[in-house]
Amino acid sequence: MRSSAGALTRYLCITFVVSWFFWVPVMLASYGLPSFTNGYVGTWFTDLVSGKGNTLSHWFVLFGGVLGPLAGAIAAWHHRAGKKGVITLFEHLIDVRISGLWGWLSAFFIPLIYFGIASAAVIGLSGVSFAIDGWPFTFILLFLVGCLLITGEELGWRGTQLPLHQENRSSLTSSFFVALTWSFWHLPLMLMGSASADDPVGSLIGTLPFVLVIYPLMTIPAAILITTTFNTARGLILVPILFHSFHNALNADMSIQAATDALKVQAEGMAGPILMLSLWVVAIAFILIFGRKRLSRYQKVTMQSMLGDKQASD
Fold first, then answer.
1. Residue 199 confidence (pLDDT)
2. Given the DSSP bridges, would you call strands 129-132 and 254-257 parallel, antiparallel or unpaired?
3. In contact, 215 and 191? CB cutoff 8 Å
4. Residue 183 near residue 216 (C-beta atoms within 8 A)
5. How far apart are the C-alpha atoms of 244 and 225, rounded to whole Å?
6. How many angstroms separate the Cα of 63 from the Cα of each of 22, 58, 165?
7. In 31-161, which ranges are continuous DSSP H helix?
8. pLDDT at site 33
9. Quick one: DSSP state of residue 310?
10. Taking the CB of residue 51, how many other CB atoms lie within 10 A of it?
11. Sign, CA torsion 30/32/36/39
């Protein structure tokens, strides 16, 4: 069995090369630079789900997000254990017997906790209310489509990078490493989404602090909580997929109901920072409850333990 360092290097290199191969041309086009197609400056996920995602840019964004981590994961597992490694990866995607009840419940209860805290805080400070648009059909559609699109991503970040880090590091430290690379991986996606044809340089400069500072501050607590879910689910990758998609669906489909436009703008300005704070509060609570070593009541999951070496998860 080969070293975890070689597998990790393969995962990161292939993931970034494949994803950015698709994303960088779209990002450049979004800033008016020569490219194969028109710039894409929309919300690609909602466009795709609603049937508007029929441009080459939409599909390049989709391919980069799905194929990059998937290709990196397959390469890493194959490097580590050959054909057995690749089979193990997909067994931990679909074998629902791996996780106990608490693992399944964590995928939904943890996002509800921090979204509930954030919503209660915004309501208390501004007096608005929240609703889920199109409940239940639109929400369920977003959730199910999200699960399909996120599968490739989570086979990589939680199914491969996290268990590789957890072989030699605590779950908390592993979560930080995953969060930082996960956040930086999104760089072209964030830049293309905020591009402005009227002021491309200004929009680029204005976006960089968000991508390099604010976005990592959001992904770090999220990664900590998904690590808790992954370890609680004993390495079943389907559970972090459910967590990730449920979070995204709540974030996309929850809307503020306010009596006036001014009050709605005020509440929307509060929602982002309060949600980030709520993520940190819940993440710190889980660190204190479960400890930095495992972030769960169960053993941390490593690539070796997923391959069948139970001593590696101590």
1. 62
2. antiparallel
3. no
4. yes
5. 10
6. 7, 9, 26
7. 44-49, 56-94, 101-126, 137-156
8. 74
9. G
10. 7
11. positive
CA distance 270 to 23: 31
> What per-residue confidence (pLDDT) applies to 259?
82
Lookup: tokens for 179: 């969060």
Place of tokens 């409850």: 289
Tell the burial category of 133 from Cβ atoms under 10 Å away from its Cβ (0-12, 13-18, 19+).
exposed
Longest dimension (CA), the chain: 63
Q: What is the pLDDT of residue 4?
A: 86
| CA–CA gap between residue 251 and residue 248 (Å, rounded) | 5
pLDDT means per 10 residues in the chain (314 residues)?
86 98 87 68 60 74 94 97 97 96 97 96 92 87 93 98 97 98 91 68 68 89 98 98 96 88 90 95 98 96 87 40
What is the per-residue pLDDT for 237?
98
Structure tokens at 24: 């960088």
Judge residue 192's burial from the number of C-beta atoms within 10 Å of its C-beta, 0-12 exposed, 13-18 middle, 19 or more buried. Answer: buried
CA 178 from centre of chain: 10
Q: At 285, give phi and psi (nearest 5°).
A: -60, -40
pLDDT at 312: 41
Query: Two tokens at 181?
Result: 């690379």
Model confidence, pTM: 0.91
Q: Which of 23, 22, 17 is nearest to 190 (CA)?
A: 23
Residues written for the chain: 314
Q: Which amino acid is at 7?
A: A
